[in-house]
Amino acid sequence: MPPNPEVLLRRLHSSNNKERLEAARYFAEYASPAHEQALREAAARESVLWIRGALRRALARISPAPEPNGSAVSVNADDVPEGFAAQVHAEALETTAAQLVHEIEPLLGGLRLAAETEVPNFPESATRRSIDRLDEFLEVLSRLRRAASAPKVEEFSLDEVVQRCIQEVAAPEGLQIHKSGPQPCIVEGDRSLVSMSFINGLRNAVEATVATGAELPTLPITVAWGTTDRDQWISIVDLGIGFKGNLQRAFDIGTTTKTGHLGMGLAIANQAVVSMGGQVLLVPNDRGVRFEMRWPKQPS
Q: Which of 215, 224, 130, 139 is nearest to 172 (CA)?
């Protein structure tokens, strides 16, 4: 049964971000002049970046800018909503990754099942290692999809999330992780996206520290967190080998200087924070790197 526009218009009033986003994306493709007033009212009260952007695209579909005499129209950068390009990129990334996972997952499952019965000594074979590598890639692709999804904004205790993520990373014996920040530290954002970005940043810091070959107790990692009047933040400072690649491309998908890595960790970390309207910074120090993630407080 095709979607009912009247039902979707009512969903624009929902307190559920996902319902509002699905409705806004529908109208971005199928809006008609009859929906204009309701869409304008929804856009005016919407505070979530992704949903507001979809509503603006819906309104642009109803009332596109005229092209004088068929000539190209120059666009003033001030007329483009803040974060619009990042939002469109994230929506495309989420859709593409979801489609790839949907198509590849059953094929990979069938391949593993066939290989287990047809390849001699499968557990020790290069075939098994290659299939495991594909499984790893599929899981990373799923994480990238989640990082690009619309955020579910809620209040949570940032210090508790930091502590849980540090335990999940499980640093090697001897490596000290110093923590500094208010407790409790209540923030707004998507708990899972914050966790995803922080874990990827911390894993990079641990790997860079271990790669020095030095005594781990002499190279502590410092994790700090807090809030300002405008945003919320976490920083990770390590004394490891530093970032050896091109900082301009550090967050590109597939960029890595590490053997055997897929080059998705920083891309996922960055996309998770961008999905909340924030940014990730990677700053080389005299020794090591500072990884910093910041995302804005929601408007009242």
A: 215
The residue type found at 149 is S
Tell me: the pLDDT tens digits for 43-64? Answer: 888 877 678 778 888 888 887 6
Inter-CA distances, 78 with 81, 88, 244, 296, Å? 8, 17, 36, 20
CB 12 within 8 A of CB 23: yes
Instruction: Specify the CATH number of the domain 5-66.
Output: 1.25.10
- The answer to whether residues 156 and 187 touch, using CB atoms and an 8 Å cutoff, is yes
Quick check: 158 and 276 in contact, CB under 8 A?
A: no
Looking at residue 274, what DSSP letter applies? H
**pLDDT at residue 21 in the model:** 82
pLDDT digits (tens, 9 = 90+) for 228-259: 988 999 999 999 988 776 666 666 654 555 54
Q: What is the CATH number of domain 154-296?
A: 3.30.565.10
Helix boundaries (H) for 149-230: 158-169, 191-210
What is the number of alpha carbons within 13 Å of residue 277 lying toward its C-beta?
Answer: 24
pLDDT score of 257: 52
Pairwise CA distance, residues 192 & 196, whole Å: 6
Residue 104: closest CA among 126, 127, 144, 131: 131
Mean pLDDT throughout 18-27? 84
Question: What are the sequence ranges of the domains in the chain?
Answer: 5-66, 84-148, 154-296
DSSP 72: P
**SS3 of residue 30 by DSSP:** helix
pLDDT in tens, 29-46: 888 888 989 999 998 888
| Residue 296 CB partners (closer than 8 Å, separation 6+) | 230, 231, 232, 276, 277, 278
